[in-house]
Write a sequence for this structure.
C-alpha cells in the first residue's frame, strides 16, 4: 500500500462536564458591541468555564479576495481591534478555557499570503495566531475544518459543511439531516 499524504486532523475534544459559551461570527472590527456585551454578561451569569470563538472572530476585510473598498482596508486596525476584543473576552473569563476556531474569514490572511507572499507562510510571526497574540492570552487554537467536540455535541463553523446549509429555512433540521448527530453550526 503506498503511503498516504492526506492530512488527518484530530478533533478538539473538550472533556468533562462544562458550561460552554459559543460565540460565532463576531467579525471584529465590524462587531455588534451591544450583542457581544449581552452574550458575555450571559456567559458570566451562567458561570461558563469554556468559551468557544466559533469562527469568523476577525473580519479580515483588508485581505479579502472579494473587491474590498480600499478606503476601508486597514489590516492593522482590524488586528488591533480583534486583539482588544480577545483581551476583553479573556478578562471577562479569566479562568475559562478559550478556543479560537478558524472560520473562513479567519483563514483569509493565510489565503492572502499563499497568493501574494508565499515565502511568509513559514514565518511564525506572520500567522494570525501570532498577530493576535493568542498564546499570550492563553487562547487555544482549533484549525479551520478541525471539528470541536464537547460531550456529544459537534461544534462547526459554516464553511466546514460541504455545500453549506444553502437554505436557512429549518436550518437545525437540515444540519441534523446532514450530520445525524447533535450539532451546532455558526
Amino acid at each position: 500500500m503506498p503511503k498516504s499524504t492526506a492530512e488527518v486532523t484530530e478533533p478538539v475534544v473538550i472533556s468533562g462536564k462544562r458550561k460552554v459559551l459559543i460565540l460565532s461570527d463576531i467579525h471584529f472590527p465590524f462587531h455588534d458591541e451591544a450583542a457581544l456585551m449581552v452574550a458575555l454578561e450571559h456567559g458570566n451569569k451562567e458561570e461558563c468555564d469554556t468559551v468557544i470563538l466559533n469562527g469568523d472572530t476577525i473580519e479580515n476585510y483588508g485581505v479579502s479576495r472579494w473587491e474590498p473598498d480600499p478606503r476601508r482596508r486597514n489590516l492593522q486596525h482590524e488586528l488591533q481591534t480583534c486583539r482588544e476584543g480577545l483581551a476583553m473576552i479573556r478578562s471577562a473569563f479569566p479562568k475559562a478555557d478559550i478556543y479560537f476556531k478558524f472560520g473562513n474569514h479567519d483563514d483569509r490572511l493565510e489565503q492572502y499570503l499563499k497568493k501574494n507572499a508565499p515565502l511568509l507562510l513559514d514565518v511564525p510571526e506572520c500567522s494570525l495566531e501570532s498577530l493576535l497574540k493568542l498564546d499570550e492570552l492563553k487562547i487555544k487554537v482549533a484549525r479551520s475544518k478541525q471539528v470541536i467536540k464537547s460531550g456529544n455535541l459537534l461544534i462547526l463553523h459554516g464553511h466546514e459543511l460541504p455545500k453549506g446549509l444553502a437554505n436557512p429555512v429549518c436550518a437545525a433540521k437540515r444540519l441534523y439531516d446532514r450530520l445525524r448527530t447533535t450539532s451546532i453550526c455558526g
Notes: The chain has a mean pLDDT of 90. The domain at 16-144 is CATH 3.60.21 (Purple Acid Phosphatase; chain A, domain 2). The longest helix spans residues 75-92. The first strand starts at residue 12 and ends at 14.
